[in-house]
């Protein structure tokens, strides 16, 4: 059964600019502003943040997919919205919420808040500026073969505030990150794959299907193990082994003491699918 969440839908009934659809244990989050190449504004950022909170708080959900409508992923922040925020305009509920809680913006971009469950990116077309910034906060990435990535803020005299000046070099290497950040030039999907910035390049129009395939595989696994492995990957980034191994052991021991850790081997010996409860 598919459930669509429209958190905070305006009374006017205007279409939401982000859709969050739950299909079993998989939450698909779709940027829904195709006429603007899914550029983010206050509403998009608030709804993204709400979707990430929903992913964390709903125990029936195990993994999320982030994608965009209309053959493109995200062209970054709507420049007109930047001007409105700077001017202190307060003419709708979303911009008021963002101004009252500025942390929502960077949480939406997966910089200051990352759910404890994995997020898979399915990108078609443009993924520029904020589109590539949010990519770096996801865990697994699928791109259509014509997709292009780029941190283009420098071309507008802006700074990429959602983490790229720190994260990108860790995910591609220093020289590649420096060229991308300082020139603002695009990176084709195939080159992004060669650099390890994306996991899969698929025919155009197939990114979401491939992401769903990966999500379904993750959702079949033990949820405690998935969360613990993800936490270990994140918490040990850039740490030397001597500091990283105690973190790994802490997460691993908690999983190995769980009921799921008994259920998995038992199901294997009994030649049946495991029934994980997350306990």
From TrEMBL:
GO terms for molecular function: catalytic activity. InterPro entries: ClpP/crotonase-like_dom_sf, Enoyl-CoA_hydra/iso, Enoyl-CoA_hydra_C. It holds the Pfam family ECH_1. CDD domains: crotonase-like. Belongs to the enoyl-CoA hydratase/isomerase family. This is Enoyl-CoA hydratase. It comes from Pseudofrankia asymbiotica.
